[in-house]
Amino acid sequence: MNIPADASAAPLWPGPDTTLSVRDTFGIDSDLRVPAFSTRSEHVPLRDDSYQFDPETTLAIVAGFTHNRRVMLQGYHGTGKSSHIEQVAAQLNWPCLRINLDSHVSRMDLVGKDAIVVSNGQQITEFRPGILTWALQHPTALIFDEYDAGRPDVMFVIQRVLEVEGKLTLLDQNRVITPHPAFRLFATANTVGLGDVSGLYHGTQPINQGQLDRWHIVATLNYLAHDKEVEIVLSRMPEYATPENRALVSAMVSLADLTRTSFMHGELSTVMSPRTVISWAENTRIFGSLSTAFRLTFLNKCDDAEKPLVAEYFQRCFDQELALESGNASFY
Fold it and tell me: What is the pLDDT of residues 241-295, one digit of tens each?
C-alpha cells in the first residue's frame, strides 16, 4: 500500500454516501440500515457472494460501522473472525486493512518514523506515517488480528485511539491526529484478553483490563453448523451438488468437525477451517483422489505424532484405511 509521506496534508476524504438495508444485504431479519459507499476503492476487500453471515456476529460488526463502536471478535482459530469483518466491509464498499500483531510489529510500524529522503538533490529528514497514523485520517476499517499477541509497547499505542475521541498524539511531531469520521476499529482474538489457560495459543498474553474495557462490543464467533458448512462448500463447488457428492462433502465436513473438537481438547495442534475443506474439495477435483488431496491439503501440515489420530478420523468418516509409514505418511 502506498502511504503518502505527509498524511496530515491529505484532504479530508469523503465518507459514506449511502445506506443499505441489513435485511437485503446480509439476509438478517432486521430493520436496521447501515452506512455504505456507493463505489469501490482499492482497499475494499473482494466480495465473496457465497459467504454465510452469522446473524449475531454480523449485527455486532454492523453496529461498529454504524455507530463507530470498537468491536472485538473472539473465537477459536479457523472460525473466520477476520474474514467476517472483511466480508461485511466488502458489502459496504468500506476500505479495510488488516494488521497481524505478531512480535515483529513495533510502535514505529503503527505510528511512523523519520526517514532520510532525497529532495531537490539534497538529503532531508521527513516523517513517514505508520499504518495506524495513515488509517486514522482516512475512511478505513482497521482490523488488529491476533490482538492478544501484541507487544506491550504496541498495545499502549493502540490504547490511545481507544479513548472516546480516539485522538493520537505524535510526540515527535508535536501534532495531534484527529480520526476521520469514517475511521472504524476492529480486533480479533483467541482468548478475549484473559491469557491462554488452555495451552492452544502460545504467545498470547492477558490484556490490560483498562484497555479491554475500552472495547464497546465483544462478540464470540464459533465454528459453523455442519449443514451450513456443507452448503458453503457446495456453493463454491457446484459440480459436487449431486446426492453422491453431497454425501462426500458431508463426510469431509464431519472429519473437519473431529479435528476441531480434538483441537479444542488439546489433542491436535492443527485444525481444519472451512477454507481448508474447500481447498480439499478443489484439490480432489485436481488430483482425482480424495486421499491424495487430503494429504496435500491438510495431513502434511500436521505433526508426525498426530498423524495416526488424523488417519483414524479419515477411516471413521470414509471407511478407508490410511497406511502410515514411519517418518512419512503415504496413502494407498
Answer: 898 899 999 999 999 999 999 988 889 888 898 889 999 999 999 999 999 999 9
8 A C-beta contact, residue 124 and residue 5: no
Are 278 and 213 in the same domain?
Answer: no
Do residues 303 and 154 share a domain?
no
Q: Is the pTM of this model over 0.70?
A: yes
62, containing H or E segment: helix 55-67
CA distance 310 to 262: 10
**211-249 residues labelled b (16+ CB within 10 A) or e (exposed):** ebebbbbbbebebbeeeebbbbbbbbbeebeeeeeeebb
Domain boundary among 202, 220, 238: 220
Q: For residues 88 and 100, what is the distance between their CA atoms, to the nearest angstrom? A: 19
Check whether residue 91 and residue 150 sit in a common domain: yes
What is the total count of domains within the chain?
A: 2
Distance CA 97, CA 240 (A): 34
Per-residue confidence at 207, pLDDT binned at 50, 70, 90?
low
How far, rounded to the nearest angstrom, does the alpha carbon of residue 80 sit from its chain's CA centroid? Answer: 6
**Cell triple for 144:** 488488529
Residues 41 and 112 in one domain: yes
Shared-domain flag, residues 110 and 50: yes
Whether 125 is covered by a domain: the verdict is yes
pLDDT tens, 115-131?
777 777 777 777 778 88
Domain residues for 238?
226-318
Could you give the 3-state DSSP secondary structure of residue 36?
A: strand
The residue type of 207 is I
Q: Evaluate whether residue 244 is within a structural domain.
A: yes
Question: Can you read off the three cell numbers belonging to residue 215?
Answer: 472495547
As given in the structure block, the three cell numbers for residue 146 are 491476533
Cell of 91: 458489502
Residue 307 and residue 159 share a domain: no
**3-class secondary-structure state, position 187:** strand
